[in-house]
Amino acid sequence: MVRAPVPAALLAGASAVLLLLCSFQVAFSLSIGVNYGALADNLPPPAQVAAFLKENTFIDRVKLFDANPVFIRAFAGTGVSMVVTVANGDIPGLAKLPAARDWIAAHIAPFYPATNISLLAVGNEVLATSDKNLIAHLLPAMRSLTAALAQAGMGKIRVTTPHSLGILAASEPPSTGRFRRGYDRAILAPMLQFHRQTKTPFMVNPYPYFGYTGRTLNYAIFKPNGGVFDSATGINYTNMFVAQMDAVYSGMKRLGYGDVEIAVGETGWPSVGDADQPAVSVENAASYNGNLIREVNSGRGTPLMPGRRFETYIFSLFNENQKPGPTAERNFGLFRADLTPVYDVGLTRTRAAAVAGGRRWCLPSGGASEAALQANIDYVCSSGVDCRSIQQGGACFLPNTLRSHAAFAMNAYYQSAGRHDFNCDFGKTGVVTLSDPSYGSCKYPA
Length: 446
Ligand SMILES: *[C@@H]1O[C@H](CO)[C@@H](O)[C@H](O)[C@H]1NC(C)=O
Ligand SMILES: *[C@@H]1O[C@H](CO)[C@@H](O)[C@H](O)[C@H]1NC(C)=O
Description:
By secondary structure, the chain is of the alpha/beta class. It is 34% helix and 13% strand. It has helices at residues 8-28, 46-56, 69-74, 97-107, 132-151, 184-198, 217-220, 240-254, 282-297, 351-355, 370-381, 402-417, and strands spanning 32-35, 59-63, 81-86, 116-122, 158-160, 162-164, 168-170, 178-179, 202-205, 228-230, 235-237, 262-267, 312-314, 361-364, 430-433. The strands form 4 sheets. Strands 5-4-3-2-1-13-12-9-6 form a 9-stranded parallel beta sheet. A two-stranded antiparallel ribbon has the order 7-8. Helix 4 (97-107) crosses helix 5 (132-151) and helix 11 (370-381) crosses helix 12. The longest helix is centred in the N-terminal third of the chain and has 21 residues, at 8-28. The termini are far apart. It binds 2-acetamido-2-deoxy-beta-D-glucopyranose (2 copies). One 2-acetamido-2-deoxy-beta-D-glucopyranose (NAG) binds at residues 79, 81, 116, 118. Residues 1-29 form the signal peptide. It is an enzyme of class 3 (hydrolase). Keywords: Disulfide bond, Glycosidase, Hydrolase, Plant defense, Signal.
């Protein structure tokens, strides 16, 4: 299909609307997952990490690389959803239902639903191991674990397995995407059939970091670039992440499974590398991860999958100082071990809210009329709220203006009535604020 040309003016208008929508999304419904790996000797205890994620960040899901009970239990009651992973070596044994039942009883049942376990990942990049025994038992293990979860009344937990993009034999341009021969019909088609039947996601780990060349760096990190044109579809791809997702989609569609949901198990960019890796920097990591978060929260999907959403887990939550390999491997983290962000990608909740410690005040809105301000004062001060501070001689009498007195009265009412947003409505003449309006000796309660 060739896309019809769109007038430039219309495009400009559309992208302005898109931008507005994006910033709205970022402010109000940001949702992102992280891989919580812990190959380190300096990380805070899991319970502290769980509290930090819940209270100080927009991260609402974590993915573990194992089924460590200490980590699973740490997230109980936080609402943060969790992916628990079965070790590759356990896969052959779990192909039989009784063993799968035992595994679920030991590793999931004690913690669920207190910990919001949403997905069970069966192994990690199993096809990339080329281990015939593991690969042969992967789908049977996924099936028996699904059955065991259902039998234990935990059928809401969905079963998947993450794949590296090594499953693709071709990926560029995206419309040519196809799975490796030998894996496509024998292994991936029945697995996609399983995902369709159980309404579970096909999970992939796209890493533009492992695919860029000097020429395609900007394309890989969402910076302005000349794009990659797919002449078969007429689509001009301007970032490699979206192109990789469409390559996966093309491979699935070729086998007849274009409808199956896709999730992103891992993706990321390191912030520190070795001397021969000039593309590894704090700036490039912030560009990749910041734009990735915006991309997957935008709701626009990809050219081949318009409007589809991909549950996404960034690699990684922490820099992990005991990971082997090149320097970059130890520097994929969004956060340092002391919980400070390595760079700002908008995942930490606003400083204002943190400084105010969640305290809020109610003030008149800018457009409130004098009549409304007077009515609010009359209403509050006749309802039993203490208004002596704004009477002559009171700490908040000066400045002697209707607006200043109304502000004090409306806030006093809001605080005493229980600090619900509707306690600050006042016929749409009140607004809740995070900054303390107290001045001099005039203290506004909070
Ligand atoms: C559990 O996580 C899911 C997202 O996977 C979310 O929709 C749901 O609200 C969470 N449940 C609780 C109790 O927080
Ligand atoms: C693709 O988009 C980029 C960035 O907007 C632009 O520079 C390039 O000319 C486009 N290429 C084609 C073939 O349309």
